[in-house]
Amino acid sequence: MQVIKKKYDPMDVNIVVENAGEATLSRAEVSVRIRDILTTILVFMSGENDVSVEITHGEKTTIFKVNCSQKSIGKIIGAQGKNIGALRTLVASLSGRNGFRSIVEVPYYPFDSK
């Protein structure tokens, strides 16, 4: 039997949970982490570093407002809104898992467009 070693795959991602068993993160701390993840993904999608995300905390909902150049908006929204739909699903899942609701706002593209 021949054993083949697996080559390094840059798409392999390991998630490390630090301080497991300690107190959970606050809503503000989770929001900052989600913003960092969202910003990283948006920079990769748009291919430009001019993307930023602002956080606004409401009573029950956190709003992540995307700020980018007008030429980046098409790449962020994607064909028929698939890219932004996937990002909104990801952010909603991450925030919902931590007990709060979230919305991702993109300029010129309303939340309820489908």
Question: Can you tell me about this structure?
Answer:
The protein is of the alpha+beta class. The protein has a domain at 27-105: GMP Synthetase, Chain A, domain 3 (2-Layer Sandwich). 39% of the residues lie in helices and 16% in strands. The chain contains 3 helices and 3 strands. It has helices spanning 27-46, 70-77, 82-97, and strands at 52-57, 61-67, 101-105. The chain has a 3-stranded mixed β-sheet, covered by helices on one side. Strand 1 (52-57) and strand 2 (61-67) form a beta hairpin. The chain is globular and about 40 Å long. It holds the Pfam family KH_KhpA-B. One of its GO terms (molecular function) is RNA binding.
Defining traits:
single chain, 114 residues, alpha+beta, GMP Synthetase, Chain A, domain 3, 3-stranded mixed sheet, 3 helices, 3 strands, globular, KH_sf_prok-type, KH_dom-like_a/b, RNA binding
SSE blueprint:
Blueprint: H1 27-46, E1 52-57, E2 61-67, H2 70-77, H3 82-97, E3 101-105
Helix pairs in contact: 1-3
Q: How many strands?
A: 3
Proportion in helices: 25-40%
| Discrete helix count | 3
What is the CA-atom radius of gyration, in angstroms?
A: 17 Å
CATH topology category name of the domain at 27-105: GMP Synthetase, Chain A, domain 3
Classified by CATH, the class of the domain at 27-105 is: Alpha Beta
Widest beta sheet: strand line-up: 1-2-3
Poorly predicted ranges: none
Q: Sheet with the most strands?
A: 3 strands, mixed
Pfam family, one: KH_KhpA-B
GO molecular function: RNA binding
